[in-house]
Amino acid sequence: MLRAQSGAWTVDADGIWSSSANWLAGAVANGAGATAFFTNTVTSRRTVDVDGPVSVEALRFGSPAYNNWRLIGDGPVILDGAAKPRIGSTVNQRVEILTPLAGTNGVIQESLPGDIELAGDNSGLAGLAELRSYTVAQTMSKTAGSMAPLVRDYFPTGGVIMAGARFELFGRKNGSGVASPNWTVLQNSARVQAASTNATVSLAPGQRVTGSGIPADTFIRQILDGSNLVL
């Protein structure tokens, strides 16, 4: 069984997660209950390659010089621990997490002054995502030939609690293939409802929409609150 070990990134450079040379005193953050700190001074945006599965209870980002961080790689980052997993950016930054997130207990985006952008396949993250401050964005994309709903491929499966944050969904479709809409936007209304061909009665963020004056292959891009949408 892996013993939890918190760790602090210490180099002003890009690097791979698994290399002990990148972490203070060689302590690589890993294990249920661990915290990974990316809070050292860096002179530009730094990219950390999550080159294999890692487990942490919390991800904490920051930089005294206000530079950003980005996680890439297949990972995944498994959010695991006795407490509710947490992600937070401690300064006015926009952290990009392209690595997939997974776990069974959801995640809390902490009440800290920074934005979080998720751009990986996070469908392996079960449980509620609680968003507390600033902006959390989920970017979703798929090929032109895929008709699967975006949200089922990329979005956390347990749902989202809005607790003070702004939540944005960005959907994009690669290529120029013709696609039939799964959702219908009612004329002169902010309401979005399922098309009969979808055989569902609830709105799933990231779905394709259609309506009078709406361009072809349009997706729900942004959720301002529980009832107002931006395409």
Describe the structure.
With 231 residues, the chain is mostly beta strands. It has one domain (7-178, 221-230). Helix content is 2%, strand content 35%. The strands form four sheets. A nine-stranded mixed sheet has the order 2-4-7-10-13-15-17-22-23. Strand 22 and strand 23 form a beta hairpin. It is globular, with a radius of gyration of 19 Å. The model is unreliable at 142-153, 171-204 and 222-229 (pLDDT under 50).
Order of helices and strands: EEEEEEEEEEEEEEEHEEEEEEEE
Largest sheet: spatial strand order: 2-4-7-10-13-15-17-22-23
Structural class: mainly beta
Share of β-strand residues:
35-45%
Low-confidence stretches: 142-153, 171-204, 222-229
Q: Name the average pLDDT.
A: 72
User: Strand count, sense and closure of the main sheet?
Assistant: 9 strands, mixed
| Total DSSP E strands | 23
Protein topology:
Blueprint lengths: L6 E2 L6 E2 L18 E4 L7 E4 L4 E3 L1 E4 L7 E4 L4 E3 L6 E4 L4 E4 L3 E2 L4 E3 L5 E4 L10 E3 L3 E9 L6 H5 L5 E3 L3 E9 L8 E3 L6 E3 L13 E3 L7 E2 L2 E2 L5 E2 L1
Parallel strand pairs: 1-3, 2-4, 3-6, 4-7, 5-8, 6-9, 7-10, 8-11, 9-12, 10-13, 12-14, 13-15, 14-16, 15-17, 18-20
Antiparallel strand pairs: 17-22, 18-19, 20-21, 22-23
